[in-house]
Amino acid sequence: MITLTTSPPETARGDMLVWFAWQTGKKRCGIDCAPVRKLIQPVWRAGDFTGRGEETLLLYPASAGRARIAAARVLAVGCGKVEKDHDRLREQLRTAAGRAATRAREVKARRVVVILPDRTALPAAEVAECVSEGLILGNYHFSGHRTVKKDEDPPVRVKRFVLCRNGLKAPEARRGMVRGEIAAEAACAARDMANEPGNYWTPARFGDFGRRLARATSLTCTVLGKQELKKLGMGGILAVNQGSALPPRLVILEYRTAGKNPTLLLVGKGLTFDSGGVSLKPAAGMEEMKYDMCGGAAVLAAMQGVAGERPEGINVVGLVPATDNMSGAGAVRPGDVITHYNGTTSEVVNTDAEGRLILADALAYGIRRFKPDAVIDLATLTGAVIIGLGHHRTGLMANDDSLADQIIAAGASCGEPLWRLPLGPEYTRQLKSEVADLKNVGGRAGGTITAACYLQEFVGNTPWAHLDIAGTAWNFTDKPYIPKKGPSGTGVRTLLNLIRHWNR
Ligand code: BES
Ligand code: MN
Ligand code: ZN
Asked: Which residue has the least CA distance to atom 7 on ligand 1?
């Protein structure tokens, strides 16, 4: 779906040729390709297109007479003034590329030729990576379950992007392009899973995805069903599943290199629908709780990316506990006491605080079985994180500063910003129960932190970080490469970035 060409941009056939413009304030528009310059320079001189971010200009080379450009349309996309900071520069490219993909979809372009931006301080590979990411993420569309009416044009996606290297070294540009493609396709896979409603994307589907991925790649997959979870004593997953008509799953995906290499364990909340259970949620907006599996989707999608990229020097294990949270006759009752995988007992005061119950089992099991050097969990865990950070940053809590810093850096470099919140015994104390080792809610105060404290009880001394993506998994910050509505695929690219630069 994305390739690199070394031939000059004006000769490349396509429905659209894209040029990324920097806002320089200069008289000349600053593109090397002469035929494109001839087309745009008059508009630039008139001051109608200056390269400001958010600006786009669509032109038709043939309308000026005999065209020296093979593509049917030329799209100039403003990038703004070149940022000095590399993370911001990368985001500028991703954003501009996302805008290009959006415009291309609007005019139903199928084949889009893209001139890679020059005049940046970034290495060629990073330029190509960010552009490729922005194009693929911005080209995303979920067709859903709507029937296309006879007189209706179905929405289209761009079929092929062709990158023109524009003076950048081809091998480097190609390497970056493939990186960007793998990461963006993985994020789109997470969006696809999340977009399916709860009656389609069931716990069993998580298992199917894992098995299919393992068949197609070098990963191995194990899917544990209800009986196995019972034998293992996963009281948290089973309690949440008790009120449901659908059996739970625990999906395990393993990427193995040499045994001596460090192992990273990823755990994702795969709650395929969260009604709240007996502690029922209000009806308004409850349909959004089909997205409560975005953490699980991110973990499986990241494993897809790992399988595609085969990083050296690291083993990665992905775990997804999957169930819905329903209020059937067998449902867990407020006040019930359950026993987790590691023997810890817990008083279920609120059945809507279910994410921590399924994650606790998965964390304890994953750590005992795989002895990882670090653990990261992703979960749409608390509404409170939206109150605290809004929809612009993922909440991060960790028992290890170096792991926290690495994740924050990985997120910053791919446009998925995080913000760290504290942990501490004063918060954990809010989880004290009269009847069990823990209770599953710590009150309204510091709700995001006490949820993390619950998880912390199950990780021991293993370096661990928890990402609360409840505010960012959907309704994430408005930007051209993120869908306005629906899931963002957040977390996937942060994880892949982290794994690429793993050094502990
Ligand atoms: N899945 C929800 C958290 C959530 C809420 C995510 C809104 C996205 C948007 C989670 O299972 C939940 O219900 N948490 C409760 C915890 C409370 C009962 C302690 C919450 O945040 O209200
Ligand atoms: Mn809940
Ligand atoms: Zn939930």
From this structure: 383
Q: Establish whether residue 292 lines the binding site of ligand 1, counting it when its CB lies within 6 angstroms of any ligand atom.
A: yes
The answer to whether the CB of 278 is under 6 A from ligand 1 is no
**Selected catalytic residue, list 281, 420, 479, 500:** 281
Distance CA 392, CA 477 (A): 5
Q: What is the mean pLDDT of residues 193-202?
A: 98
- In the residue annotation, 333 being an active-site residue is answered as no
- Our answer on whether the CB atom of 277 is closer than 6 Å to any ligand 1 atom is no
- The owner of tokens 């760290």 is 420
Q: What is the pLDDT of residue 150?
A: 85
Question: What is the full DSSP assignment across 322-358?
Answer: EEEE---TTPPPTT-EEE-TTS-EEE-S-TT--HHHH
Does domain 189-500 bear CATH number 3.40.630.10?
Answer: yes
pLDDT band with cut points at 50, 70 and 90 for residue 111: very high
Q: Which CATH superfamily is domain 2-139 in?
A: Leucine Aminopeptidase, subunit E, domain 1 (3.40.220.10)
Q: Measuring from atom 9 of ligand 1, which residue has the nearest CA?
A: 383
What is d(CA 398, CA 404) in angstroms, rounded to the nearest whole number?
A: 6
- Decide if 281 is catalytic: yes
pLDDT band at 143 (very low <50, low <70, confident <90, very high): confident
List the chain domain ranges. Answer: 2-139, 189-500
What sign has the CA pseudo-torsion 437, 442, 446, 450?
Answer: positive
- What pLDDT, in 10s, does the model give residues 223-249? 999 999 999 999 999 999 999 999 999
Distance 360 CA to ligand 3 centre (A): 14
Q: Average model confidence (pLDDT) for the chain? A: 97
With a CB cutoff of 8 Å and minimum separation 6, the contacts of 464 are: 363, 374, 375, 376, 377, 398, 399, 400, 403, 455, 456
Residue to probe by mutation, ligand 1, list 288, 352, 385, 427, most atoms within 8 Å of CB: 352
